[in-house]
């Protein structure tokens, strides 16, 4: 508690990412982390947890992965940043384009928002069009105004900027075509995650590719989450549909700060020095090419391709999903505690007696997890988890489901909340 109070006294929100805020956890059960190793973390009070969704899905190989840490340490001892490009940048770009062969060029940055905003800027420059079309069913694309203006936390963003962003529903090609037709010649790009909790309907991604070509806009895949977790070549490699631009992050650095904008040469070169077109100020970040982060990314990509990490993530996720579904059904809450998503990227839903999403029941469930030694804002696995970790997690979930059943029977989860309920990140007021 005291550590959280000190954080709030100095840092707005008490954390550097809203999704890590203590309002996302039950009251007085938001641990402040001391350190981690593999799939386990310890808080400042010495409590140990099995961790899921590590680093907001970034740490997919587990904390202090030997190969990644060694690569980063080696480059730190050789210098982190120079007046000219490091040879590590060439090595990282080579490895990335080998791993994601559908991309022709790549530029690295430090966070996902910089990469997605750069993709939007490229699309606008290439097409001369003002509007950005985002998939309205996907939760997050950027901290920048073109996206945040569309959320409940739009304070500080002029309406004129928000008016330049329109939206389309996932999986609905006719609705997307209507949007393109109604805004003919004005939409610069379609940006979406190729897949989230649902697999794309048959022909959907190829249909988007055809619509983008027909209406002259840029197709952008946000692969911040799908990159590496879906396959070593990302969702585009798995589904066989190549976007014009794509953005990667999270798993790319296993916790180190690195992201990537990748795509077709004709578009990417607009941000370079070898075109006669008007120049685009694409990505120019002082720390974008820190040697240790790029060395970590190289080690991550090598580990994924050589050790079949994506397949391991899917196997672990399958084991976890099966176990959770079994114990939830046994406790009579199989229709209320639900596991969704691709096996490598599992989330859970907490539904009330009417089978509607409930923050109160999420609070109850999270409280049981944390007190049982599982830090799980989601069920997103890392490859460092052991089968014993998964089985232990299922045991904790089993006990949580028994409490969940009691709350449903009482038609009141309040006695098991321990305080205020957890809150959604995107809300207008505290």
From TrEMBL:
<keyword id="KW-0413">Isomerase</keyword>
<dbReference type="InterPro" id="IPR015422">
    <property type="entry name" value="PyrdxlP-dep_Trfase_small"/>
</dbReference>
<dbReference type="GO" id="GO:0008483">
    <property type="term" value="F:transaminase activity"/>
</dbReference>
<comment type="similarity">
    <text>Belongs to the class-III pyridoxal-phosphate-dependent aminotransferase family.</text>
</comment>
<protein>
    <submittedName>
        <fullName>Glutamate-1-semialdehyde 2,1-aminomutase</fullName>
        <ecNumber>5.4.3.8</ecNumber>
    </submittedName>
</protein>
<dbReference type="GO" id="GO:0030170">
    <property type="term" value="F:pyridoxal phosphate binding"/>
</dbReference>
<dbReference type="InterPro" id="IPR015421">
    <property type="entry name" value="PyrdxlP-dep_Trfase_major"/>
</dbReference>
<keyword id="KW-0663">Pyridoxal phosphate</keyword>
<dbReference type="GO" id="GO:0017000">
    <property type="term" value="P:antibiotic biosynthetic process"/>
</dbReference>
<dbReference type="InterPro" id="IPR005814">
    <property type="entry name" value="Aminotrans_3"/>
</dbReference>
<dbReference type="InterPro" id="IPR015424">
    <property type="entry name" value="PyrdxlP-dep_Trfase"/>
</dbReference>
<keyword id="KW-0045">Antibiotic biosynthesis</keyword>
<dbReference type="GO" id="GO:0042286">
    <property type="term" value="F:glutamate-1-semialdehyde 2,1-aminomutase activity"/>
</dbReference>
<dbReference type="Pfam" id="PF00202">
    <property type="entry name" value="Aminotran_3"/>
</dbReference>
């Amino acid at each position: 508690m005291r550590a959280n109070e000190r954080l709030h006294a100095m840092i707005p929100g008490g954390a550097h990412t809203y999704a890590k805020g203590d309002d996302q956890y039950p009251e007085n059960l938001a641990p402040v982390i001391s350190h981690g190793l593999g799939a386990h973390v310890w808080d400042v009070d010495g409590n140990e947890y099995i961790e899921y969704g590590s680093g907001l899905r970034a740490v997919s190989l587990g904390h202090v992965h030997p190969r990644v840490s060694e690569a980063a340490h080696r480059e730190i001892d050789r210098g982190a940043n120079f007046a000219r490009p490091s040879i590590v940048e060439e090595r990282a770009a080579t490895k990335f384009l080998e791993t994601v062969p559908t991309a022709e060029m790549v530029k690295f940055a430090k966070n996902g928002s910089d990469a997605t905003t750069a993709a939007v800027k490229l699309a606008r420059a290439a097409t001369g069009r003002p509007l950005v079309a985002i998939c309205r069913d996907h939760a997050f694309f950027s901290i920048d105004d073109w996206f945040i203006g569309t959320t409940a936390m739009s304070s500080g963003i002029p309406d004129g900027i928000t008016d330049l962003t329109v939206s389309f529903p996932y999986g609905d090609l006719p609705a997307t075509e209507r949007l393109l037709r109604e805004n003919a010649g004005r939409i610069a790009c379609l940006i979406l995650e190729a897949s989230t909790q649902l697999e794309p309907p048959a022909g959907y991604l190829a249909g988007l590719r055809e619509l983008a070509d027909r209406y002259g806009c840029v197709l952008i895949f946000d692969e911040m989450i799908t990159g590496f977790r879906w396959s070593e070549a990302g969702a585009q490699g798995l589904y066989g549909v190549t976007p014009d631009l794509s953005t990667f992050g999270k798993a790319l650095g296993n916790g180190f700060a690195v992201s990537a904008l990748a795509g077709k040469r004709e578009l990417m070169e607009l941000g370079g020095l070898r075109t006669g077109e008007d120049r685009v100020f694409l990505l120019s970040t002082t720390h974008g090419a820190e040697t240790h982060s790029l060395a970590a990314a190289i080690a991550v990509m090598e580990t994924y391709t050589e050790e079949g990490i994506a397949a391991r993530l899917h196997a672990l996720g399958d084991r976890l999903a099966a176990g959770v579904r079994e114990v939830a059904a046994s406790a009579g809450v199989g229709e209320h505690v639900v596991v969704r998503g691709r096996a490598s990227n599992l989330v859970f839903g907490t539904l009330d007696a009417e089978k509607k999403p409930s923050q109160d029941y999420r609070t109850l469930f999270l409280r049981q997890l944390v007190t049982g030694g599982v830090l799980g804002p989601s069920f997103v696995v890392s490859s460092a988890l052991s089968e014993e970790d998964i089985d232990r997690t299922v045991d904790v979930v089993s006990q949580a489901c028994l409490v969940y059943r009691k709350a449903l029977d009482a038609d009141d989860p309040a006695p098991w909340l321990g305080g205020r309920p957890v809150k959604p990140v995107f809300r207008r007021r505290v």
